[in-house]
């Protein structure tokens, strides 16, 4: 029986290859097998060595290349055959990346696992847009929420956003109308500032701003596509002049 390989759960960061950790870049460059998400930037995949096997397990709201159970089985099967596997994920593998599920599946099968953190999508997007998620004058609490979670309208989001707080919503583009309705129903003011950051850290990055009540119209009118994050709170209304020189900025009037 072959000595099992190691599964490396690697964070690819927000998109720009320059934001990879040194450890992540080294693993990508030497890997014979990379199992990657659909949102990993092609420039990062281009770092793989010639002849490396690249397997896409891209997910979208409407279609999954492989269901999660099948991804877990793929990682275990390849590692049991003695192969090291780089499982490459956008952002950080343990923040809405299902890295915990994959690590658990590998541990249960006796497969060694190493987790390589990446710059999170929230941290990378905020930095690229020059939005401080915490600010002494505006916010001392940050919450991360998945915008496509089951039972979205049944959850209590009261207190996640408001005075002194910042709310960052992952995977919220397709559910923007429900998110805005939910937050206002839970007590958030319709004029609460919102920033939508699309393609953070990439050349085509956009920062779109407006009040919470206008979020659905903003997303629809500007045809926002994933990857995109939604930042809600007073910090979203603190534009920096430097951003205008780096990214296309739009404002939606209330």
TrEMBL record:
* PROSITE patterns reported for this sequence: SUMT_1
Q: What is its EC number?
A: 2.1.1.107
| Domain Tetrapyrrole methylase stretches | 6-215
**Top-level taxon in the UniProt lineage:** Bacteria
Pathway field of the UniProt record reads:
Porphyrin-containing compound metabolism; siroheme biosynthesis; precorrin-2 from uroporphyrinogen III: step 1/1
Q: Which InterPro entries match?
A: 4pyrrol_Mease (IPR000878), 4pyrrol_Methylase_sf (IPR035996), 4pyrrole_Mease_sub1 (IPR014777), 4pyrrole_Mease_sub2 (IPR014776), CobA/CysG_C (IPR006366), Siro_Cobalamin_biosynth (IPR050161), Uropor_MeTrfase_CS (IPR003043)
The entry's keywords = Methyltransferase, Porphyrin biosynthesis, S-adenosyl-L-methionine, Transferase
Molecular function GO labels? uroporphyrin-III C-methyltransferase activity
User: Which major enzyme category is it?
Assistant: transferase
What family does the Swiss-Prot or TrEMBL record give for this protein?
Answer: Belongs to the precorrin methyltransferase family.
> What GO terms in the biological process aspect are recorded for it?
methylation; siroheme biosynthetic process
Q: Is the Methyltransferase keyword given for this protein?
A: yes
Q: Which lineage do the record's taxonomy fields give for this organism?
A: Bacteria, Pseudomonadati, Pseudomonadota, Alphaproteobacteria, Sphingomonadales
* Alphabetical list of SUPFAM superfamilies matching this protein: Tetrapyrrole methylase (SSF53790)
Q: What is this protein called?
A: uroporphyrinogen-III C-methyltransferase
């Amino acid at each position: 029986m072959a000595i099992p390989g190691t599964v490396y759960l690697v964070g690819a960061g927000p998109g720009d290859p320059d934001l990879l950790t040194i450890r992540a870049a080294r693993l990508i460059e030497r890997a014979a097998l990379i199992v990657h998400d659909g949102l990993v930037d092609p420039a990062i995949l281009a770092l793989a060595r010639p002849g490396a096997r690249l397997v896409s397990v891209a997910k979208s709201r409407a279609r999954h290349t492989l269901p999660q159970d099948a991804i877990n089985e793929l990682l275990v099967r390849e590692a049991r055959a003695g192969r090291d596997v780089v499982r490459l994920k956008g952002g950080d593998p343990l923040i809405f990346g299902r890295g915990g599920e994959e690590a658990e599946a590998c541990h249960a099968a006796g497969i060694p696992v190493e987790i390589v953190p990446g710059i999170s999508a929230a941290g990378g997007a905020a930095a690229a847009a020059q939005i401080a998620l915490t600010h002494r004058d505006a916010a001392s609490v940050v919450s991360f929420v998945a915008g496509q979670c089951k039972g979205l309208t049944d959850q209590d989001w009261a207190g996640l956003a408001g005075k002194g707080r910042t709310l960052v919503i992952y995977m919220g583009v397709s559910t923007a109308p429900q998110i805005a309705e939910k937050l206002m129903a839970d007590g958030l003011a319709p004029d609460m500032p919102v920033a939508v950051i699309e393609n953070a850290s990439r050349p085509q990055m956009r920062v779109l701003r407006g009040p919470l009540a206008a979020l659905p119209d903003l997303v629809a009118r500007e045809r926002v596509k994933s990857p995109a994050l939604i930042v809600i709170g007073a910090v979203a209304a603190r534009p920096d002049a430097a951003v205008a020189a780096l990214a296309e900025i739009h404002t939606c009037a209330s």
